[in-house]
Design goal:
Strand 3 and strand 4 (37-43) form a beta hairpin. The protein has a five-stranded antiparallel β-sheet with strand order 1-2-3-4-5, with no helix packed on it. The chain has strands spanning 5-9, 13-20, 23-30, 37-43, 46-52. By secondary structure, the chain is mainly beta. It has one domain (5-54).
C-alpha cells in the first residue's frame, strides 16, 4: 500500500519523508559529490535509527542487466 510522502530539497541533499503506522522515516541522499546520505526513523518522540548511510558501493556481479555482455 502506498503512503503519502514528501520530498524536500536540503541543499546538497534531497530528503524523502513518509509515515507508516506510528513510525516516521526520513531518508536523505546526496545530490552531488560522494555517495551517501542519512536515515532517521522515529516513533513519536523516540528515535529508533539516526545514522549516515554507507559511502561504499560494492561492485555488482551477476546482474541480469549484464547477462548479455
Amino acid at each position: 500500500k502506498m503512503v503519502e510522502s514528501r520530498v524536500s530539497d536540503r541543499g546538497n541533499q534531497v530528503e524523502l519523508t513518509f509515515t507508516v503506522g506510528a513510525r516516521t522515516y526520513a531518508i536523505a541522499l546526496n545530490k552531488t559529490g560522494e555517495v551517501g546520505g542519512h536515515i532517521k526513523i522515529t516513533e513519536g518522540a523516540k528515535v529508533l535509527v539516526d545514522r549516515p548511510l554507507t559511502q561504499e558501493v560494492m561492485e555488482q556481479h551477476g546482474l541480469a542487466l549484464n547477462a548479455g555482455r
